[in-house]
Amino acid sequence: MRTVTAVDVSREMLTQAERNLLRFREHEILYVNQSITDLGGSQPYDLIISNAALHWTYPDIGGAIDHLAGLLRPGGCIAFTTAGRSVASEEFDEKISNAIVAVGGTIDRHPFRQRRISPDEATRFCEAAGLDVIEAFIIERATNVAPAEYVAWASSSGRAWTELPGGEASLAAELLADQEEFRVGHWSTLIVARSVQN
Ligand SMILES: C[S@@+](CC[C@H](N)C(=O)[O-])C[C@H]1O[C@@H](n2cnc3c(N)ncnc32)[C@H](O)[C@@H]1O
């Protein structure tokens, strides 16, 4: 039997996780509704896995990684994905910013692009936290979508704007203005690292 701690700030996500993990009844699974930055533990963890959540700890992603590293036993591992930054992601975010300005919108003070980190930045955070980085890379996925779909998704997931005088439809139209299809990129920085603390 293993003891697993599942943590998320969203109670709904924990409920969904509980449904997904029903088949692992033989293990002890603790569902903890709090921020990973507040996560404690009476015993150090052998392994920490985090998928697509660390960027939400911006502006102190390094602090969050440091906190998680401190919860590992010596030799314990951490594997995480977080929003990735690359030349292509910067170009994509620039295109979105230009479109927001073109339709008279106001850019958010903390648009999603600021939450992105490259594999090099992630490696620096890990090393500063006493982790030995084993793997650091970025995955890019791209797909064609209707601009309105992208704008609706971006709106509900860390939007880049605070105001769009013409509404979201105006931004969708602007994004489609110079091309037949709107290509959306999705970038994830992945890290596998081991604790070298004594
Ligand atoms: C894209 S979802 C990924 C969910 C899940 N990890 C998965 O792989 O399916 C991002 C999740 O991060 C959670 N989140 C945001 N900030 C967090 C924090 N500080 N601590 C823990 N979870 C957080 C959100 O509630 C959301 O469920």
Concise description?
This protein is an alpha/beta fold. It contains 6 helices and 8 strands.
Can you offer a commentary on this structure?
This is Methyltransferase type 12 domain-containing protein. Pfam families: Methyltransf_12. It comes from Sphingomonas panacis. With 198 residues, the protein is α/β, with parallel strands linked by helices. It folds into 2 domains: 34 residues, no CATH class; 157 residues, Rossmann fold. The chain has 6 helices and 8 strands, in the order βαββαβαβαβαβαβ. The strands form 3 sheets. The protein has a 4-stranded mixed beta sheet with strand order 3-4-8-6. Strands 1-2 form a two-stranded parallel ribbon. Helix 2 packs across helix 4 and helix 5 crosses helix 6. The radius of gyration is 19 Å and the shape is elongated. The two termini are 27 Å apart. The structure holds S-adenosylmethionine. The site of S-adenosylmethionine (SAM) has 13 residues, from loops. The site of S-adenosylmethionine has 13 residues, from loops.
Name a few traits of the molecule.
single chain, 198 residues, alpha/beta, Rossmann fold, four-stranded mixed β-sheet, two-stranded parallel sheet, 6 helices, 33% helix, 32% strand, binds S-adenosylmethionine
CATH superfamily caption of the largest domain: Vaccinia Virus protein VP39
User: Could you give the distance between the termini?
Assistant: 27 Å
Query: What is the third-level CATH name, the topology of the largest domain?
Result: Rossmann fold
Which structural category fits the helices and strands? alpha/beta
Rg: 19 Å
Q: What percent strand?
A: 25-35%
Average per-residue pLDDT, rounded, comes to 94
Most strands sheet: 4 strands, mixed
- Say how many strands there are: 8
**CATH-scheme architecture of the largest domain:** 3-Layer(aba) Sandwich
How are helices and strands ordered from N to C? Answer: EHEEHEHEHEHEHE
Structurally, the number of domains stands at 2
Strand order of the largest sheet: 3-4-8-6
Shape call: elongated
Helix segment tally = 6
Give the low-confidence spans: none
The ligands found in this model are: S-adenosylmethionine
CATH class placement of the largest domain: Alpha Beta
Q: Determine the fraction of residues in helical runs and give it as a percent range.
A: 25-40%
